[in-house]
Amino acid sequence: MGVYAEHVLPRIVNVACGMRVNDPLRERVCAGLHGRVVELGFGSGRNVPFYPAAVAAVSAVEPADLGWRLAGERVAAATVPIERAGLDGQALPFADSTFDCALSTWTMCTIPDIAAALAEVRRVLVPGGTLHFVEHGLAPDDKVRVWQNRLNPVQKRLFGGCHLNRNIRALVTTAGFEIREAESFYGEDAPRFLVAQTLGVAVSP
What we know:
Distance between the termini: 37 Å
Shape: globular
Radius of gyration: 16 Å
Largest sheet: 7 strands, mixed
Structural class: alpha/beta
């Protein structure tokens, strides 16, 4: 990893993902988490204040050392134990059926082999475990999709491999999850090609 990826990009992500407009979405996606939770793309710990009381412990998967350091105060203030327990969502260092829930917030866009990562999530979830997710991705409108496809190469170069046009619902179902609930919508205060969002919960059979 270069200087930009290690020292600049995590700070950009921290600011972008820390906008208050995202807080209601974090609260919604974290609702229902319980027991042992694995969080993909923990980043700077922006979800920590929204963990429900039913969460017993969190294993944080975060590749960026700077991101983990930026999370320090939130981790220290958390009411549940949080450990950095993995660096790569494509190869989770946990035994099968370890977790009750998984959490992913604006992370599936960036993981290079997202199919492998979702297969790993299914592996480490108990049968009936749930994947809670809010992600940006492929827009519902054709005109917006055209711009997403055009701008995707630039987006990937500037933002660490982030894709604008991944079909989140299709990725989750292709991985073998059953979507229990999901909502697609446009976020606020940004061009639509950036903020086509999908928020939902899927079950691992």
